[in-house]
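Troubleshooting entry. The earlier prediction with L-homoserine gave an output that would not parse, so I re-checked the input for stray whitespace and re-submitted. Clean input:
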Amino acid sequence: MQKIALIGFGTVGQGLCEILRDKKDELNKKYNYDWKIVAVSDVMKGSVYCRDGLNVEKLLNFAASGRSLDEYDCKCNADILETGWDALRTINESNADVICELAFTDLQTGEPAISHCKAAFESGKHIVTSNKGPAALAYQEMLKLAQNNNVEFKIEGTVASGTPILNLAEGSLAGNTITSVKGILNGTTNYILSEMENGMSYDDALAKAQELGYAEADPTGDVEGYDARAKVAILTNVVMGESFGINDVSCEGITKITSEDIEKAKSQNARWKLLGSTEIIDGKVVASVRPEMVPMSHPLAGIMGATNALTFTTDLMGDVTIVGAGAGKIETGFSILTDLLAIERG
Ligand code: HSE
């Protein structure tokens, strides 16, 4: 029985809970996977811990109604129900095996996620996270700390939600030398560029992307390329084994692209895409995010809307391209589930 604590109970945490609730029997039957959510701690939504496990439906109802989790009440003995614990106390003192770190994180400092990861590793708990901060700013340090404590640092959800990009690179493609990773890593900007091609204005397309829930809380992170830059830093760290931070990735967003640029590309049978890449050039790893005009014949030209796509260039397999969702409640919830299952299966 895997015991899980959620730090942060926003879209991703709730998406995970919905999947765990809806697939409980299937996960148990197919993978012999059994779980308990023992704690949830969220700075805005309150916190509750019960070592015997919380009721997922009830947790989701609290989130839907806006009631604080501090008011959670259960049929267990009152002495095993704790409320009001902050993230660090939940990580240090709960009986969880795995901490799902899903709280808001500042991409400049990686905090508070980096401190949460350190506390989890030092108390012998695995981390599963979709937060880009720790992997974009301190991947090798986090990995080493996890290894020294015999626990896992799992981050599939940091790049393209549940589309298994990191698992593909580290798992199925193992044995290849990967010389380049290049693709569309931000759904919001790809959606905006797609809609601008259909005649929508930049502002309307951005507003629609926000309405559909693709954009970051502050969409500057999407349109200036910062979100894609963090993902490129993570890919560089995981796939190329480097210690890159966000400032090691050159970055240009899509804010300077005008409707005229879009029309010009159309007339040349091409399309603008915001491409992120990390590649070995003359023996050195070079990483960037920038808009590029790609010919229609290019495999990435056909990727429209909020979809992500990434091409790995390998020595043994040539080019391998993976296409899938880059954002979304259930899709990112799945990224957490896939890492939880991997930990359970050892
Ligand atoms: N805002 C991001 C995107 C999703 O549009 O791709 C999470 O990284």
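This one parsed fine. The first helix runs from residue 11 to 22.
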